[in-house]
User: What shape does this take?
Amino acid sequence: MIGLVSSEWLRIRSRRLVKVLAAVALAGIVIALVIGAAQSRRPSADELESARLSAEAARDDCIAQGGFGAVEPGGDVEAFCRQEMNSAVFLGKPPMRLSELPETLRGTAFIAILVGLVIGASAVGASWQTGTITTILTWEPRRLRVAVVRAVVVATAVFMVVVALLGVLILLFWVTTSLRGLTSISEGWPSEVAGVVLRVSMLSAAASVIGGAIAMLGRNTAAALGAVFVYLAVLEGLVRGLRPALGRFLLGDNIATAVIGHEVTFGATTLTPGRAWVVVSIYTLGLAALAAAVFRVRDVH
Amino acid sequence: MASAIEIESLRKEYRSIRGRTTVAVDGLDLDVPEGGVFGFLGPNGAGKTTTIRCLLGLVAPGAGRVRVLGSEIPRALPSVIRRVGAIVETPALFPRFSGRRNLMILARIDGIGCTSVDAALTRVGLADRADDLVKTYSLGMKQRLGIAAALLKDPAMLLLDEPANGLDPAGIVEVRGLLRSLGAEGRTVFVSSHILSEVQHTADRVAILARGKLVASGPVREVLATRQGSGVLVRLHDQRAGLDALVRAGFEAEPAGTSVRVSIAAEAADRVSRALAEAGLYPIELRPDEVDLETVFLELTKADDVEPAS
Ligand SMILES: Nc1ncnc2c1ncn2[C@@H]1O[C@H](COP(=O)(O)OP(=O)(O)OP(=O)(O)O)[C@@H](O)[C@H]1O
Ligand SMILES: [Mg+2]
Assistant: This one.
């Protein structure tokens, strides 16, 4: 078992696709932050002061007018006005702010999950396409073991790669805002950042398991990726249109809710993060179990 | 003698989506004794690879029993597999990893160290290309790497599906030597091949398969004897005169190519010589008429010899 884990680990580490995707993602992060830094400028003390004064005035105005009617009846008007009428709004050219990091991190979720899906699908698909699954089974014939170990190793690798990349993003974001932006953060910021990183990484790992499971069923990488895209783009779209009541079981919406981390309303349905995680786990584990069961009895050519 | 492989009434059919069935192995019985080289022969599509896949638990037989090194397959496969090295069809390797990396990935599964990897690479003559990507290897080099992978476990049994495929003449001679030495070390080398002259010189025993059925098996000499009427071939400048003289002297003789074939034990060839000399004829060549494996194979696997499967 340890031997198999060590072998799988060596294999995933050696895969060029993993390195290429990680390098491309890293380059993307650096380029985006360089552009951001070039466009960001730390405001002078005078500018900050005048923005603060404008914000205060606007806030008082907002409270006086009951939130301009934008607050639902019974809502906390003062909290709303405090949040919306902050000094950032009144700075001519808004600088990069460390406090916006969680939003940026959430924005990377789509790409990170995609990367997980591709790595997972290809880690399994490539074995079928090159026939190396035959070779591996002549070393370890317990197929369930082979499947489980590969899923765990690939998911762990994806998790680590995504955590590392987001770590780099956080570091560079902090450097950029220290040099050319604003670094003030709220009290809950560190735990929010940690939470988003954890969620995005876990969802990417789950996506790698889903990609691997479908590649195992289809014995092919491209087929697996195609199937996922057809499902997300076509099938879920149809369900959303024709049977809105089933909307809360759609994988795409639940992943989005899990990333965002608070209640989200899609049309008629409202999804909560807790339920979203349950749904995503069921999809992931269900597909993995199905793939493993099929692999156990299937002839290998 | 203990059996390394026992196959009883093995049957495997493949079903296509359109419902067509192909019988790949049709009630095969086979017994391979321990130690030595066993040649597993048959024309394309005879079911050799399918049989090897059944031995390795890669495909599930429709019927029949398979035992490898005394253990039931697939139940006992996890314990048996450590003592079996295999190549199925062309060796399937990771094309984007180096040869060494390929072997490392497999070696780690059984906790085999780098020294064994290097030794295996050296044994097949790949040591100086070990760090090149496998996709840059020639067919023969890939085949050698496959053999190296099969040797890595220091196995008691090797299942090699056409290991000489794609090798150059020097490589074929090398593999022949390798198989012989592996067999002589007491390992069981079960090897399928189309190069019959090779098998004839390497294998101790052979089995011939046609359309999923066994058509001959046993020690090479015995299998050859099934079709070998004893005789000698005589070549003369004047074939016609020689044939007449021999028939007149009471021999059973017939033209065979440019020679004359005389049905007589090879040890009694001196009588042929004398009869010809008495007629004033002198042979250019006189040799025993040996049937080779190729001839036997072609006769045994002729389409109408076996009832069609499926
Ligand atoms: N995956 C498969 N699906 C359907 N039919 C198959 C499959 N694999 C093999 N067959 C069929 O089974 C029969 C035996 O094939 P097999 O590969 O065992 O032959 P072989 O003796 O190894 O031939 P070769 O000398 O060409 O390698 C053939 O008729 C083949 O078409
Ligand atoms: Mg074959």
Remarks:
- The first helix of chain A runs from residue 2 to 14.
- Residues 214 and 224 of chain A are 5 Å apart (CA to CA).
- The interface with chain B takes residues 2-4, 6-7, 10-11, 14-16, 126, 130-142, 297, 299-301 of chain A (CB under 8 Å).
- Residues 43-94 of chain A form one domain.
